[in-house]
Structures are given as C-alpha cells and as structure tokens.
Amino acid sequence: MSSLSSNLPTSPSTLRVGCVGGGQLGRMMALEAPRLNIDMRFLDAEGSSCPAGQVVGATDRNGVERIVKGALYDEDKLAELAEGCNVVTMEIEHVGVQGLEKLEAKGVNVQPSSRIIKIIQDKFVQKEHFSKYGIPLPPYADLPNLEAIHDAALQFGLPLMLKSRKGAYDGRGNTVLRETTPEAITTALADLGLKAEDLGDTLYAEGWVRFYSEVAVMVVRSTNGETRAYPATTAVQTDSICRVVLVPARNVPANIRHKCENIAMKAVNALGDGATGMFGVELFLVENGVDDIDVLLNEVAPRPHNTGHYTQDACATSQFENHLRAVCGLPLGDTNLLVGAAAMVNVLGAPSGDINETMKGVNAAMSIPRAVVHWYGKGCRPGRKMGHINMTADSHAELDTSLSRILELERISYD
Ligand code: ATP
Ligand code: MG
Ligand code: MG
C-alpha cells in the first residue's frame, strides 16, 4: 500500500482528484484531466486493467500509485483512495454511502456529497425528494407487500412498471407487470430474482408512461450553486439501453426543449448543497392534447452520463471536463453546442461476443468525415457498452447522411 502525505513536493496548482470507479466514465475523465493540471487516481475492483487504469500512468510524479484495487464498498480502500486528494468524486452512484460519510467526517472533500448519493442511489427516495420540490414525475408508489402491487395496479392501471430501488442500470432492475394474477406477479418478481417475502424496501411501482419521446439533459452544478444545462437531446433507447443520442432533440419544439432544460436544472438545484458536478437528467415527453406536451422526470444520475458523450466533440467543454471543473471548484465551462447538429451511437458487444465483429462499425466509421471513435478498452461481451461514435454536422440533414451509415453498420433501427 502506498501513502501520500500532503506536504510532498508538487506543483502548487496541481489538483488531485480521487474517483470511485474506473470504468469508461472514469477513463474519459482521466483523458481530460492532465490538460487541466489535474492528477487523477481511481478505486476499481479490476485494478490497473480497468478502463481508467489503462490510460493513466501507474504512479504519479511522487511515486504514488494511481489505481487502488478494491471494491467500491470497501471503506478502507475508499480511505486509501482519498489520501492526499483535494477532492473525491465518483463515476457511478452504486457506491458505499457510509464509506463516503466517514470520509466527510474526517474532513475529506467529497463531491457530489454522500447526502446527494444517498438520495439518488435509492430511486424511490429520489422520487420522494423530487416530488417534495414540485418536479413533475410519473405516478409512483412504495411496494411494502403484495397488496401494494394490487393497489398500485388499480390506481395506475396496467401495464405497471416494477423497479428495483437500488443498483439498477440499462433496465436491469425493471420489470413490466401486464396482469395481476398471482402467477404474473410471481413471474415478474422472479424476473428480478425476488419472491413475495423480499418485498419491503426492494421495489417500487411506477405508472406506465405513454411517452412519444425520451429526452436527456446534462446539467453541471458548481460548488457555489451555479447551474448550467447542455442542450436537450433525444435519447433513443432499445431494450432499455441507450443506443443513439440526437442533438438538439428531434421533433421537439424549441419551447419544449427549453422547458426540459429548465426542469432538469430545477431538479438538480432541488438536490441542494453538495449537488456538484455533472448530472444526467432523463425525461419523458408525453403528448397532452393537440399542442400541449408534458415533461416528466424519469431519473437523475449524479455523474457524467451516456447521453452526454456527444459533448466531447460537439461542445466547447465536454461533460468530463465540466465534471472535473465543477468538483474542483474551478469556473464552469461553456455548455453551448458548437455545431448545427450532433449524434452519438453506442457500440455494443456483438451478439456473438466476437471483438472483430464488434469492431466492424468502428473501423468503418474511421473513414466517415466528422465521425469520432471513442473506445473503452473493456473485455467484449454480447450487448456490453464497448465504445461510442460521435458525429457532428452543420445541419440535421447533413448529419443524417453519415448517421444512417453508422446505424446500418451497428444494425440499429428505430422509428
Ligand atoms: P439507466 O441505464 O438509464 O440507469 P435504469 O436501469 O435506471 O437505466 P430506467 O431509466 O428506470 O432504468 O428505465 C429504462 C427505460 O425503461 C427508460 O429509458 C424507458 O425507456 C423505460 N421506462 C422506464 N420507466 C418507465 C415507465 N414508467 N413507463 C414506461 N417506460 C418506462
Ligand atoms: Mg438508472
Ligand atoms: Mg435510465
């Protein structure tokens, strides 16, 4: 185990940031950090072979190891990560809140704070918080027992969305209940690896939202509460996984895009003190009559987000740079779109799990003008997020020419 005392010689302006998690989001932060004179280190179960570990040198100039190998819930490892850091941040919300609280009690600067992670990492608590602050939400209910599932189905109708309160991603943790027979309920619970007796604080219910589009807005908030939104985007999901992001949001009038950006900023501000860094805000658009569109909040992630990857090539300041600026207390960067239109396509592991098959679209994208490849360095598995391709153009029409080629290569189709 290496240690770093705060009086080791270093450039006076070098900031040390410890990041909990060294996956692709950490890797993309790590790639931005040196330009800002920020030195990053990571805690990850995989150790130095994690995506972030692959892009940072093994040690910093004081000989301190940049990768702490350990579980994100391991309090000793968290403390080791934090040693000598100006700030500790995270690239994932599924981390140990108690460990973060202990760091804060010792005076470590944790951004976003443990209080924010505690609210967000339990989706039901998150809903209760936003509801208190008047953020528009789909109807939702606590599920302490089987009876509550029947009550929610009666109240919200079918289908009914059952969601895991904690630990969910890419739709893993959600299941759709289409009828309320005992068999259907047993099957829905079994989908999530649960039985009726596991109900209590494991799941909650959401009314089915008949949205016509999903929108995502990236918001950055500084330590002093300044909040800026990136432009509203269309987030195309297939099988609950984000596949394509279109910017500015398609078929969404400018006033609704601005409404989305305002609701996203209001939600992040409603989190209050300690809501620092990037936040990915997922929204549903619901048609309500001829000219009216309701905006409902689905969920918020307290970190850079898949729907914000386009900012790397389409905005003056990427979401990764702005996250680092915000958590370090540096001035926030500009969030405007610098191009007429942009898109991001996720590259998922091919169904065969074969890396060469997976790389086909990426290789072809290299010869498409204004298409930029970002690779994560992860082991290939079917359906796993392996990388993404950003595209920029002067207009939607121009973008669509190269986008349709990439969609074909990645075998993506959507309405
Ligand atoms: P992420 O990877 O974004 O963290 P997650 O596992 O937290 O995903 P959600 O965002 O809750 O899952 O849901 C995944 C997708 O399922 C949504 O993007 C949306 O397409 C659909 N969905 C979620 N909630 C509802 C709902 N109440 N009604 C209809 N569809 C929904
Ligand atoms: Mg989620
Ligand atoms: Mg989501």
Automatic annotation (TrEMBL):
The keyword Cell membrane does not apply. The keyword NADP does not apply. Residues 127-328 form the ATP-grasp domain. GO terms for molecular function: ATP binding; phosphoribosylaminoimidazole carboxylase activity. It catalyses: 5-amino-1-(5-phospho-D-ribosyl)imidazole-4-carboxylate + H(+) = 5-amino-1-(5-phospho-beta-D-ribosyl)imidazole + CO2. Its EC number is 4.1.1.21. Pathway: Purine metabolism; IMP biosynthesis via de novo pathway; 5-amino-1-(5-phospho-D-ribosyl)imidazole-4-carboxylate from 5-amino-1-(5-phospho-D-ribosyl)imidazole (carboxylase route): step 1/1. GO terms for biological process: purine nucleotide biosynthetic process. It is an enzyme of class 4 (lyase). Keywords: ATP-binding, Decarboxylase, Lyase, Nucleotide-binding, Purine biosynthesis. In the C-terminal section; belongs to the AIR carboxylase family. Class I subfamily. This is phosphoribosylaminoimidazole carboxylase. It comes from Cyclotella cryptica. The chain holds residues 1 to 415 of 604 of the full protein.
